[in-house]
Specification:
Immunoglobulin-like, 6% helix, ubiquitin protein ligase binding, Arrestin-like_C, ubl conjugation, cell cycle, 2 domains, 402 residues, phosphoprotein
Length: 402
């Protein structure tokens, strides 16, 4: 509510027809009314209602330096309200608001078609905002304004073929210790599709190999990347949303994830279609290596609003899963766990941790340390683990031809 300097306007407010609605989509109609009430007779010359929306980015460059800013406009319309339908005019031809009487002037706008707007957003260096504004003009005093914001959420369907396609990648890294080569670690990972919605599980198939002398820890996390463009420069913020971890992998061993899940938390959908603000998501799969930088592999994710639906989508997803299982079936099953073996490592043992290292302080649990090889390993034998040759179990049959 806004009042004039001389308190002539008692009520000046915008009211939407559906006040309980949380957001609008492209093609929807936004309607409402402007409510006016004067404390004493008040003359007006016109009432305009406009709807506008756009993106704004601003980079702050310090206290004594100028900031960079950039804007994009997505929506701008205006209509003139017909005051003569409810208001009478005085001798000078001005419209007259009578005191202690509530006036309601209706308005309505149709939002652009789907795909032409960008979802509402608010971040550290920018925002996408939409609002309706009413301007009441008078013959002498300054114009009065009132404004009401509304949310836009463009639907994002994850049933698109490009989002149902799987994503896979692999990466490796050579590890050194005091500038001496110390083996390498590698990651190969795959997910069945790129598109997901809130609350859905992402199935991760991955293989981790460790040929260095250290105990490494495999982890996965959903990452949000916020990018802001202004003045030709981009600022990017990364946020870790949720994580899962695997088992420690000792030297010369590997670990395999077959369908390990991580759930998509409650978050905003991917922000697409804006040239100056982007919100992308990724599945980051990485190995924590004590005393060295992580080995990081990222697979793209798109968080949508419309979940999987329809026979075609389910069939595509199932075929993608079948392909995933067939392509990963060549991986050997993980060896028996060494955690069942009792060991008593003393300070003088050859596998005593020499360096404690943590994953950036994100985990409170100790993740082991830097382990160096010794000439002789007094280590209990592992549980029985063998591979069976299928050809020896099913020898080929020989048919004699006479």
């Amino acid at each position: 509510m806004v009042r004039s300097p001389v308190n002539q306007i008692k009520v000046f407010v915008l009211v939407f027809s559906d006040p309980g609605r949380s957001f609008y989509c492209g093609g929807d109609k936004l309607s409402g009314s402007v409510r006016l009430e004067a404390a004493q007779p008040h003359r007006v010359t016109g009432l305009r209602v406009s709807i506008a929306g756009g993106a704004h980015v601003e980079h702050r460059r310090g206290k004594n330096r100028s900031s960079r800013s950039q804007e994009e406009e997505y929506l701008k319309e205006e209509e003139e309200v017909r005051l003569e339908e409810q208001l009478s005019t005085d001798s000078d031809g001005y419209f007259l608001l009578l005191p202690d009487k509530t006036y309601s002037f209706k308005f309505g706008f149709e939002l652009p078609a789907a795909g032409r707007l960008v979802s509402s957003y608010k971040g550290k260096f920018g925002y996408v905002r939409y609002s309706v504004r009413a301007v009441l003009e008078g013959p002498t005093q300054n114009a009065l304004q009132c404004e009401k914001a509304f949310e836009v959420e463009e639907p994002l369907d994850i049933n698109r073929p490009d989002l149902l396609a799987p994503a896979a990648a692999s990466k490796q890294k050579k590890v050194t210790c005091m500038f001496i080569p110390d083996g390498q670690v590698s990651i190969s990972a795959r997910i069945d599709r790129k598109g997901f919605c809130e609350g859905q599980d992402i199935n991760i198939n991955a293989k981790f190999e460790n040929t260095c002398s250290r105990i490494v820890m495999p982890k996965a996390a959903i990452i949000a990347k916020h990018s802001y463009l202004a003045g030709g420069r981009i600022k990017e913020l990364r946020q870790k949303l949720s994580t899962v971890r695997g088992n420690h992998i000792i030297s010369n061993m590997c670990d395999v994830w077959q369908g390990k899940t991580i759930r998509v938390p409650k978050l905003k959908p991917s922000l697409l279609g804006c040239d100056i603000i982007k919100v992308d998501y990724a599945l980051m799969i990485y190995l924590h290596i004590p005393g060295s930088e992580k080995l990081i592999l990222e697979l793209p994710l798109v968080i949508g609003t419309i979940p999987l639906s329809g026979v075609g989508s389910r069939t595509s997803s199932m075929s993608s899963q079948a392909g995933s299982l067939s392509s990963w079936s060549s991986f050997p099953s993980a060896p028996p766990s060494y955690s069942n073996i009792h060991r008593d490592l003393q300070v003088g043992d050859p596998l005593t941790p020499l360096l404690r290292d943590y994953d950036g302080g994100e985990d409170e649990e100790d993740e082991g340390g830097l382990l160096m090889r010794a000439p002789e390993l007094y280590y209990p034998p592992p549980p029985a683990y063998s591979e069976v040759n299928q050809d020896t179990m099913n020898p080929p049959q020989v048919v004699q031809v006479f």
